[in-house]
Structures are given as structure tokens and as C-alpha cells.
Amino acid sequence: MKPNKNAYKIKLGIFVSLGLLILFVIIFFIGSNQNLFSSKFKISTNFRNVSGLQVGGQVRFSGIAVGTIESISIINDSTVNVVAMMDKEVKKFIKKDSRASITSEGVIGDKILMISQGSSKSAEVRDGTSLKSIEPVEFDDILASIKITAENAEVITDELATMLIDINEGEGTLGKLLNDEGVARDMEKTMENLRQGSKGLEENMEAAKHNFLLRGYFKKKEREKEKAREEAEKEAKKKAEEK
């Protein structure tokens, strides 16, 4: 019986040891995730609405997890205080003008506290510093805004459709103008008069060029135009040779 009793004790000791080892490993991983084994400091911030942020949630800086939410408490009817415990190694990067905001981890993920980068000229935060916050945008507010936009688009579409129907039926000033044959004929005559006027102007300019009083003026303009063209060609040739 004695050998069996000793074997039982050995097995029990191994089992207890393995259990304790697994427990220590679990505590280690939980502690690492919650920053329990590193030097920490606290910061706080206030929101009107924390939008589902919970104690134990992540705190991120530049997209990196640097701490956890330690407590969330209601100060008054319009203020909720959030205290975060953060890794002391990132303390030197967080400035007094940094801002705290609440965002989601992914589209429908858990809420996290995001700390923005401050200016390089601002001083480093101290333990217990209260940062200014940026209020989160509620999903319900986004849906309400989209709904209003859709309703406005529907009203505009209906009004455009009504206006086009009236135009096709010749209703209203614009409809009468577009459907009135007399207006169309008048516009056609106006365009023909403009073409005739343009043609007459070209003929007058051509006649002026042959007038001995104005012949010198037009020749001078032609010489200036030719000179400008030659200078442009020389400049282009010079640039080509330099290359």
C-alpha cells in the first residue's frame, strides 16, 4: 500500500504544480495586457457622453495600445469623468495640448480612448493631468443626418420632375419660350443678323488694309508679328542647343 500512496502523492504534486504554473501564465498574460507589470501614470478627461466606453477598455496613442481605462464616473448631469492608466514609457510623447477622443475598434468593435499627438512645443503631461476632449459622433446622429439628406434629395427630385413636366407641356415662362415657334424664329433671325454683321466687319477690315491711309499701320503690325515669331524661333533654337 505504501508504494501506491507515494505514487498518488507524486501525481497530486505534479497536478498541483501544473495548475499553479497555468495560473501564473494566465495572470502574466492578463497583467501584460492590462499593463499591471509596468510603471504607470494616470490621465483624466471629461465627456458629455462616453458612447459605450467601458472600464478596462484600451487606450491608444498613435494607433498603439498604451494603457487601459481605470474608472468612469458621472460628475454631474452633463459631465462624465474618464481616468486612464497608461504606460510610463509613452509619457514623454503625450503633451498637454493632446486631445482625448472616443472611437470604435473597427466598424462595430469595442469603444476605445484615443490620445492624439500634441505639438512639439507643448510641455509633457504630468501624472494626473486632465486632457481636453473631443466629443464623439453618435451613430444615431449620423443616421439622422443621412435621413435628412435623403429627404431633401427626394424633395429636390420631385420639384425637378414637376418643372420638366411643365416645360414639356409649355407651362411657365421657360416652357413657353422653349415651345414657342415665334421665339425660335426670332432667335434664328438674331443669329443670322450676327453672322451678317460679322461678315461685314471682316469685309471692312480687309478694305481698310488696302486703304493708303491705313496701309502703313497694318504693315507695321505685320512686321511686329513677324519679328516676334523670329525671336521665338531663335529662343527655342538656343534652348535646344543648350540641352
TrEMBL record:
Question: Which keywords does this Swiss-Prot/TrEMBL entry list?
Answer: Membrane, Transmembrane, Transmembrane helix
* Span of domain Mce/MlaD: 42-118
| Keyword Acetylation in annotation | no
Q: What InterPro entries would the database entry show?
A: Mce/MlaD (IPR003399), MlaD_Phospholipid_Transporter (IPR052336)
A Pfam family recorded for this sequence: MlaD
Q: Which residues cross the membrane?
A: 12-31
Q: Where is this region: Disordered?
A: 221-243
Q: Does the keyword Cell inner membrane apply?
A: no
PANTHER family registered for this protein in UniProt: INTERMEMBRANE PHOSPHOLIPID TRANSPORT SYSTEM BINDING PROTEIN MLAD, INTERMEMBRANE PHOSPHOLIPID TRANSPORT SYSTEM BINDING PROTEIN MLAD-RELATED
Give the protein's recorded name. Answer: MlaD family protein
